[in-house]
Amino acid sequence: MYYLIFAITLLIFLGTILLVHYKFPKLQKLIVERIMAFVLMAIFVVRFMSYKDVQFMDANFELYGSFGGPMNGFLNTIGNLCMWLEVTAMLMVLLRPWSYFKTAKFYTKYVALPILLVSAISLHPMIMMMQGDNHTSVLSIMLPIEIGGLLALAIFYLAKDFKVKISKHSYPEVIAFSVLINIFTMPCFMPNFFFGMGPIGRTVIDFNVIHRIFLYGSCIVIPLGIYFCLRSAHQDKIHYSLVFISLGTLISYLVGHKYDVILRPWDWPLHLCNLAMILIPICYIFRTKRLFYFTYFINVFGAVLAMLMPNYTESMLVFNPNIWYFWINHCCAYMMPLLGVALYEFERPKLKQFGFSSIWFFVYFVIVLTLNTIFTGLEGVATPVGTISGTDYFFINSTFIAEKLGKWAENIFNNLVITFTINGRTMTMHIVYQLIYYVVYALIGFGIWFVYQLMFDIADSHKALHYRLKGIRIDKLALKSALNGRSLDKPMDENVGISLELKNFSKKYGLNNYYSAKNVNLSVKGGEVFGFLGPNGAGKSTCIKSIVGIQPITEGSISVCGYDVRTQGVGAKSQIGFVPDHYALYENLTGREYLNYIADIYEVSKEDRNERLSRYIERFELKDSIDNKIKTYSHGMKQKVTIIAALVHDPKVWILDEPLTGLDPTSIYQVKECMREHASKGNIVFFSSHLIDIVEKLCDRIAIIKHGEIQAQLSLKDIENSGRSLEEFYLETIGDNTTKVEGK
Length: 744
Hints:
Layout: H1 2-23, H2 28-48, H3 54-57, H4 73-95, H5 102-121, H6 123-131, H7 138-160, H8 171-180, H9 190-195, H10 209-230, H11 235-254, H12 272-286, H13 289-308, H14 321-342, H15 351-377, E1 382-383, E2 386-387, H16 400-405, H17 407-415, E3 418-422, E4 425-429, H18 431-483, E5 499-507, E6 517-525, E7 529-533, H19 540-547, E8 555-560, E9 563-564, H20 569-574, E10 576-579, H21 591-601, H22 606-619, H23 635-647, E11 653-657, H24 665-680, E12 684-688, H25 692-698, E13 701-706, E14 709-715, H26 716-721, H27 726-733, E15 741-742
Parallel strand pairs: 7-12, 7-13, 10-11, 11-12, 14-15
Antiparallel strand pairs: 1-2, 3-4, 5-6, 5-8, 8-9, 13-14
Helix pairs in contact: 1-7, 2-7, 4-5, 4-6, 4-7, 4-11, 5-7, 6-7, 10-14, 11-12, 11-14, 12-13, 12-14, 13-14, 13-15, 15-18
């Protein structure tokens, strides 16, 4: 009968899909992908809530329990595996209409479809394993309908996504994810079915090795594993994964509940972590922010405490379903809110969000306090839906927590109570203990916020580093391709010689909306002394710092002697000598020690460094002080040491940012002579300065920048031929009504 129902359902769904496809193509998305998905979801809920798994209720269930005999053990195994994997396939198919990234389509085609085909063949063992016998029931009717409808939808998506392919390098990730997601749909009785054949770990409640494995695995390894798998993923994939995990764990949690629990409020899942299992999927599916922050601030800490102090008995085996039920529940309540914030599904919480969560927590606390008081007072009363049992929601109606704190807490619980009578039944409220409980828990929830924030700051820093390293790897691959087999030490362009090129260079700092430098194009050749002029804040230092590699490039490119600054930073820096506007020296070193240190960095030979240092020390009149500590130097002497350090490796491109500030006339003359000599050897001297007269006498060409854009770029001869001085031309160029001037 199961197979007949399945076949009829499959034909009805396929026929409906074909009818809609050919007759009402515009309604295909609505009817097939949305309405059918909701119908199948409702069928699953009715079927799932109509029974309790026999394995969950029987911790000593044996491998051949349902069919008997060694040959039928295979059918038992198939039935159990299909019960497990069918939930995975169901979620893949039903989430497909809201998931548009390639791997979600891949899962539906190549994971869900084969599982559903095997499940269709294995209907009989599945039903036998679920209800324990072969009788006709809601379960035995609804399951074939469910699998038939899901298989029809999976076939539809196979046809729709037939041409969708993923790259080969994505296969390991897809396969790993396909395996891992089944962890979160695993029924809590499954470990017992396969491994629960002996007295393993009867003291799992103690803080022993086995308890630590459960605790550390669920608190650290699992959430970190999910985080590292998803941190670089697109947000759509992150959302899909978190919805999938939360729904899968919810289904595993609800395996011990039937629909009739709705009629028995004393059995409702109102323990804080139990409630989290229901709230978390709602938060992710509907993006309910305020409800999410309630679980974030209140549930996480409670779940950790519960895992540290589990409330199952010491006599349970490690693979007892109740233990796995407990850990699935609390692991999800702990990790899912943290992952939601860590993976940017929800924004980092602020004080306002904590305020809303406190309101939710107060409402929750009042409700469970009222239910605890009522149902404990009515304990043992028979009703049409069962006998009322006492409740202890959130452990505020018993000494479970008080016993862990000591005798003083038990005394508060037992002595300071309020009792009253309703219809002859005595109701008891431990009002002082419960009030203290509420206040302390709320304060701890607020305090733990700062711990979360520290964790997320660390995670953000790690993510930024990850993206930086990933960018470096991508740049290296691009560099290898661009060099076309040449050594990575070679310049990108070997034909440009000594040169400095900025092409469409732009720089934006942080989240600023404006550019500090915008579309800057400069070209400087060997043998030139090039002046870079502009008012304060015009963008001179921004350009120079990007050239020398102090800060990253936002857009465009910069090359130094053919080396690309972005991808060949070390090669580019080896060609540069840099004198910054604000130098920083190791002042506990002597001048000579510092200069030798810089020479070591640039791997300058002993002969070359001795010759150059002797020459520059003599020129800058530092012979008497070079072996004194730098902290004893005047400002001008420190500036001279900085200049010598920039020249010790004889750079092809010498860059100076306001180099003459603070120097005496003699030193200025010496620096100018060094600049002329360096350029005369075919090198580049590129410097910025506010001293117009020095620029006019020293430079071959200049560029003027204002508001981050080049306003003029031409030779000093062109300015001289125009009959104006450089000072007049500069003032005209940076005025309010100027146009950009291009020159040679």
